[in-house]
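in:
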């Protein structure tokens, strides 16, 4: 049995675990997953849940003929979402925080930054973020469409090192295990190629939208960014207990590079620089020597037109010393430069963060 290390994970739980009868929520399978989450948090690890099940949970509450219409499904999701949240909340003594996202939210830079900041705050305050697609507002082309891919996006925004997909199957097999009893579980995948996609076949269960295909797509998005991905059987309490011990009871997709080097490459080489922030001696020292965030108080000057979430160079005496993603746009940064962070709100009428650039969004050059 192989082992794995992690510090911050997105745990994705599918509809077939939350509403196993495709109607109403049940905690039958959630209890063991909740146990895993509690144990992990006690070990000092951070967890974000991506939970499906709103449509399935609300199914019995809305009348429909044969196939529900989009509006009927959205109404189901509106009812089911609160039931799904309540099911999770009943299993934890800490706060559960609901986050509903659409594809739009993830593609709009300002909203993306807001999501990232909110997740950071929730984790800092020991709450458990529970994310789902905002099914009541998003239809087809506005949707990510399945929670496997949604979970991959959440892992990227949250800068998680691990994505754990809890399914109703043990992992990826070398043949369809529902048809071939001799199919063997693949414990480790080091390269996601066409052969792996072919093995994933079509959709698996009839509850929820995802099948093995979307799980492999999610793993693909993650491993490229240094995030390891596991597919495990969320119905198997033993598998979840093993997971808490750092063992891999299913399939592990190995990242092609470490999270740090993927992030580093992205920040350092991929992102286009949109402006320059000139800082004073004190800020330079704080950045280089103590690994601090960049505060507005250390900013002398702001150059260029950029939006919050875009990349800028940080310069001391015209020499670039670091590169990072700004919390504020150019005009707002210019307005708060040199100020103490407690003046941000009074000056701008809002405050995203006390930092101009958060330490986690910064590389030294
Ligand atoms: N967002 C959907 C729901 O909560 C589920 C999508 C999926 O299972 O992939 O019902």
């Amino acid at each position: 049995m192989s082992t794995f290390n992690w510090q911050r994970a997105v745990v994705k739980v599918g509809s077939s675990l939350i509403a196993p009868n495709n109607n109403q929520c049940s905690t039958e399978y959630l209890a063991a997953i909740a146990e895993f989450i509690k144990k992990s948090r006690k070990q000092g690890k951070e967890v974000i849940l991506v939970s499906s099940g709103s449509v399935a949970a609300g199914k019995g509450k809305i009348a429909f003929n044969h196939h529900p219409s989009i509006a009927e499904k959205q109404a189901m999701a509106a009812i089911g979402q609160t039931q799904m949240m309540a099911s999770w909340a009943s299993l934890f003594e800490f706060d559960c925080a609901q986050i509903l996202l659409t594809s739009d939210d993830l593609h709009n830079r300002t909203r993306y930054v807001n999501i990232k900041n909110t997740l950071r705050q929730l984790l800092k305050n020991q709450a458990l973020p529970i994310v789902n697609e905002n099914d009541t507002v998003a239809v087809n082309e506005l949707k990510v469409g399945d929670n496997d891919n949604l979970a991959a996006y959440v892992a990227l925004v949250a800068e998680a090192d691990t994505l754990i997909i809890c399914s109703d199957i043990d992992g990826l097999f070398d043949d369809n295990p529902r048809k071939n009893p001799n199919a063997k579980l693949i414990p480790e995948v080091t390269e996601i190629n066409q052969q792996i996609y072919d093995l994933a076949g079509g959709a698996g269960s009839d509850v929820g939208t995802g099948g093995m295909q979307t799980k492999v797509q999610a793993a693909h998005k993650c491993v490229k960014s240094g995030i390891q991905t596991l597919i495990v059987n969320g119905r198997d309490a033993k598998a979840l207990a093993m997971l808490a011990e750092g063992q891999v009871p299913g399939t592990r997709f190995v990242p092609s590079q470490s999270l740090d080097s993927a992030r580093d490459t992205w920040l350092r080489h991929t992102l286009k620089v949109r402006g320059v922030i000139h800082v004073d001696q004190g800020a330079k020292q704080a950045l280089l020597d103590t690994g601090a965030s960049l505060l507005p108080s250390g900013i002398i000057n702001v150059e260029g037109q950029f939006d919050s979430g875009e990349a800028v160079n940080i310069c001391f005496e015209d020499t670039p010393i670091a590169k990072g993603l700004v919390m504020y746009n150019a005009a707002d940064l210019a307005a708060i430069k040199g100020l103490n962070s407690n003046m941000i709100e009074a000056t701008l009428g809002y405050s995203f963060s006390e930092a101009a650039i958060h330490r986690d969004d910064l590389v030294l050059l």
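note: The chain is about 35% helix and 20% strand.
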